[in-house]
Write a structure and sequence with these properties.
Largest sheet: 9 strands, mixed
Strand content: 15-25%
Number of helices: 15
CATH topology of the largest domain: Endonuclease, Chain A
Number of strands: 21
Structural class: alpha/beta
Number of domains: 3
Radius of gyration: 23 Å
Distance between the termini: 44 Å
CATH class of the largest domain: Alpha Beta
CATH architecture of the largest domain: 2-Layer Sandwich
Oligomer: single chain
């Protein structure tokens, strides 16, 4: 066999592989596997309660305080800690939280860590943290849908949840990943404003929403798509894990001795939380290709039932035609609709924002008041408030990826007090935003923040918006 023949064969193999990837990772996802009328949706009346429930809640709007809450939960753990996370980023906050986690494992707490198999963030030198987790006797580590080169249809099936549950008594769910990008006291240029909610099961009763969160993590943990991260850890990786663990625990102990506030939180759970009538937990199905859009259909139904107002915050808004086919009737005309998202100034996600630019006029014509956030950093919280009573906080973005591709979860809270606080938090962001669409009509504006947008960034995003129309399903 000549050299040219070998090169031609290799080129053919590469071409065939890319065709295979295109068909199984792109074309396959445009097959209409589900229809709106075939999808069962939860009875939304079940989200409402008539008396005070066992679950109290706390809105975690400030990133640094949200890190303090996580730290205290880990420090106070007595039996179990379950973690299901899209990503663990870098930074001092991550190092200290992981140090606290290893200290908890050393004192006998049983810990399970489930990470997204592609986007978990612990790569390069930070792999030592993975090895340390995998090697500890009291910690189990698994990946949800790890990367498989010959199964391209699995690449889109990402674990997007951000959940921590401790002792069946405390839980956090929301949009924040772990890392200084979300939790730092002094934000850097990549910082994002996000949002979580803490749930406190006051009486540790079995009908608490915490039990639903635990069952969901259990389902993910034992699912066929989930794999043990390191079935067999080589000696060299064991040593790297021990080294990584020692480094993190040393940092944690030094921070405690230095009385760093981050490792000395003091939160009284009952006094810091507010009562609710009911707290519910909803999730996307666990399936590949196109999921049945359970959360999306639930939001649509709640919107159609709203009588007064709907307030939405989402970092990305890309309603595709596949999403719109599930809308069988419109929101009542008298209902006030407010939507907040990122602007060209604040967005950190070029793909998602360019896709939004391509459908922006459709969003405006839908009849909402559409605001774009203009200040430094970006917004990453995902929330909805219906009629100033029922609130939704979680990981779900208003885009096709959250509707059909990712695992997603949302906490539904029946509480006027919580709804008022959440609405206030969104309105604070709106006060730093520009109205770009007003009940079906675009709004002309010319602000200083828009003038400061780099012309190259603006031009590139608008050019990219022409092309993202072909893959909005994936952004």
């Amino acid at each position: 066999m000549t050299g040219n023949m070998l090169i031609n064969i290799l080129i053919m193999i590469v071409v065939l592989y890319f065709i295979y990837v295109f068909v199984t990772a792109v074309v396959l996802f445009y097959v209409p596997l589900h229809k709106g009328k075939d999808l069962k949706v939860m009875n939304t009346e079940n989200f409402y309660g008539k008396k005070e429930s066992t679950d109290r809640v706390m809105l975690l709007e400030n990133g640094y305080f949200s890190g303090l809450v996580r730290m205290q939960m880990i420090q106070e753990a007595r039996h179990t800690i379950d973690i299901a996370y899209f990503s663990i980023g870098k930074g001092r906050s991550s190092d200290l939280l992981m140090g606290a986690l290893f200290e908890a494992a050393d004192r006998g707490i049983r810990i399970r860590v489930l990470l997204d198999g592609i986007s978990h963030g612990l790569k390069g030198k930070r792999k030592n943290v993975l090895y340390a987790l995998a090697f500890h006797n009291n910690i189990e580590l698994k990946y949800y849908e790890p990367f498989t080169i010959f199964k391209p249809w699995t690449w889109h099936n990402r674990l997007h949840d951000k959940i921590i549950v401790v002792d069946g008594q405390l839980g956090i769910s929301g949009g924040r990943n772990i890392g200084d990008k979300y939790l730092a006291s002094q934000p850097d240029k990549n910082f994002v404003y996000d949002r979580d909610v803490l749930i406190y099961n006051t009486k540790q009763e079995s009908h608490s929403v915490i039990l639903s969160m635990e069952k969901y993590i259990e389902k993910l943990w034992n699912h066929p798509y989930t794999r043990q991260a390191f079935p067999k850890l080589k000696k060299t990786k064991q040593f790297r894990g021990l080294s990584g663990k020692k480094l993190l625990i040393d940092q944690y102990e030094e921070a405690k001795k230095a009385n760093e506030p981050f490792v000395h939180p003091y939160i009284v759970w009952r006094e810091s939380t507010m009562p609710t009538r009911k707290v519910s937990f909803i999730t996307n199905p666990i399936q590949r290709i196109n999921k049945s859009p359970f959360i999306w259909k639930t939001f649509i139904k709640l919107s159609q039932q709203a009588e007064k107002s709907i307030v939405v915050q989402s970092p990305y808004i890309v309603p595709t035609k596949e999403m719109e086919q599930y809308i069988d009737k419109q929101v009542k005309p008298k209902v006030q609709r407010i939507i907040l998202t990122n602007s060209i100034t604040s967005t950190p996600n070029a793909m998602a924002f360019s896709a939004y630019l391509g459908v922006k006029n459709r969003v405006i014509k839908a009849g909402s008041k559409l605001y774009e956030y203009q200040k430094p950093y970006s917004i990453h919280g995902k929330s909805v408030v219906y009629d100033q009573r029922l609130s939704a906080v979680g990981s779900f973005n208003l885009d096709s990826r959250s509707a059909f591709l990712n695992t997603e979860s949302m906490v539904m809270i029946d509480s006027e007090e919580f709804a008022a606080e959440l609405t206030g938090a969104i309105e604070t962001k709106i006060s730093h935003s520009t109205l770009v669409g007003n009940e079906g009509e675009p709004v002309d504006f010319n602000t200083d923040s828009q003038k400061n947008v780099p012309p190259i960034k603006s031009a590139l995003l608008h050019i990219l918006s022409v092309f993202t129309r072909f893959w909005r399903h994936f952004v």
